[in-house]
Amino acid sequence: MESLPTELLTHIFHFGLPTTLFGERIPPQLLAAVCPRWRHLIHAFPEFWTDIRVHDANFTPNAAYLVDQHIILSKEEPLHISLRTNDVSQRGQAHFLAVISKLLSAPVISRWHSVRLQLTNTHLEMLHPFGRRAPSNVEYLELRLLHGRFANEPSRIFELRRNPPQRFRSTISFGAMPRLKTLIAQRVELDVLSAPFATELTTLAFNWCLAPGFCVKLVADIQAQVSAHAEAAAAKEPDAERPTTPPPLPNPALRTLRLGGPIPQSIKSSPDLRDSFLRCITTLELASTPAQDFDPFAGAILAMRATLAELRLNTVLLPSFILALNGTPAVPNPQVSWPPPVFTELRTLYINACEWSPGMTQQLSTLFPGVHTLLLRSIHFPSRTAQGRHMNATSFLLSLKSNVFPELRALHLVEMAFGLDRLVELVAARQAHASAQAQAHVFHNANAAQPASKDASQSQSQLQSHGGDLRPLDMILVVEQPPVVNISALRSLRQNLREFRMVAA
After folding, report:
1. Which residues, in sequence order, are bridge partners of residue 145?
2. Cα–Cα distance, 5 to 208 (Å, whole number)
3. Can you give the residue ranges of every domain in the chain?
4. Where is there biased composition of kind Low complexity (predicted)?
């Protein structure tokens, strides 16, 4: 290592230090302690010190010194800050206060670029005395509320068990964040009355957040910016005729929306939000959403129909979700025509920890006929449905054999026990269907190209030439490795699929 050039050694250090947002890394202090040359090299490059993270047991009397070292050695580079603690004892609060006093100073807060806070209600309340110091350069903000841990205070633990909090939430304000692109909030209500950051937001994630006015504020911020631009243009040309109607909302930047728990009422009912702010969503994720929330939210989902490319459903009651999309939404949308809509742009469908019932495969395929990638994880089947029909893993595979998801190119079945012989039957059925479709296409083209006087035997010979052995299916299949591997079935799957993989349980 001593003979390596400085440039090569620096590149090696970059591999050990974070390369992605809040990724795993080696602390720079550890590298600097190896030898004088390494210490000089690590101290000479500010980018090695821009990642400031203090997690759990690292909140010690030495934590404030280490944070100050990062701030000084990073010079003027943007900072990536990650704090996580649930120690609400007096000692834990003192260590936390010493750290945030360094980070919330005026010269430092302007250098914040990405921030992740996983704290308790007590720690979030400790941020309020610092006022509305705006981290105006922040592009990523993640706030997650944790349950408090009272270290060495049995009386406080007993009191918490006797009187548990009915609702665990807090309100926090960071002032204006005009460059914010990603906002993730879990059980934290945000004060956005003076935080105009809606126009640059590309990713918005709410998980059990009770913020009824938040989404209305997003639309209001965009509308205020549009009106300001219109007034500025009118001031430059005072003689120009002013429009009688307000200018239209601009194309919003929001592309990814993730909602967990009860959906905020404003998303369900706000026509401005549904018809303007949600019309460019490409990725929608719903997690642990109550069944009664789907009907009023159906109008918002239908507003995404023209652009939605990826849908992720996690512990969602699928029958209620499908019924809401197939039924008339609570808030009628004149732009939606019935019969039920089809999401033609959807390419990826991810379903996790949901209950699968008979007919659901066909219903999802009807709603999302263009799915290329279907990922199913921890799907469970009811022992008996309300109609008395039985659904199990075998009948589920039978439903995939039929003409469903005709554009399917990748199928992932994870945390679901399937024998390889059953999968061979699935692949063979889809192979046969694809071959029949190809033969029908050849037959149609041959008849369209030949004169009517030609004998039909020529087209029949062309049809037979395209028949023969079934070609490998253009699909990737990923399944959980079974306890016993059938070698012949494994060989068949590898020969008849573009790619077949088994992953560890």
Report:
1. 119
2. 52
3. 1-49, 347-448+459-505
4. 448-465
- Cα 379 from Cα 352, distance rounded (Å): 7
Report pLDDT digits (tens) over 81-103.
Answer: 999 998 888 888 999 999 998 99
Residue 424 has pLDDT above 70, yes or no: yes
Instruction: Quote the pLDDT of residue 466.
Output: 43
pTM of the model: 0.79
Distances (CA, A) of 274 to 93, 298, 416: 42, 10, 37
Q: Tokens 């399917």 correspond to what residue?
A: 408
DSSP 208: S
What architecture is the 1-49 domain classified under in CATH? Up-down Bundle (1.20)
How far is Cα 289 from Cα 308, in angstroms, rounded to an integer?
A: 19
The whole-angstrom distance between residue 185's C-alpha and the CA centroid of its chain comes to 13
Tokens of 292: 């009664």
Q: Which residue has the tokens 């642990």?
A: 288
Q: Give helix 456-465 / helix 420-449 axis angle, nearest 10°.
A: 150
Return d(Cα 416, Cα 396) in angstroms, integer: 11
pLDDT digits (tens, 9 = 90+) for 271-309: 666 666 777 899 999 998 888 888 888 888 888 888 999
- The DSSP 8-state label assigned to residue 163 in this structure reads S
| Structure tokens, 165 | 């909090």
**Bridge partners, 141 (sequence order):** 115, 183
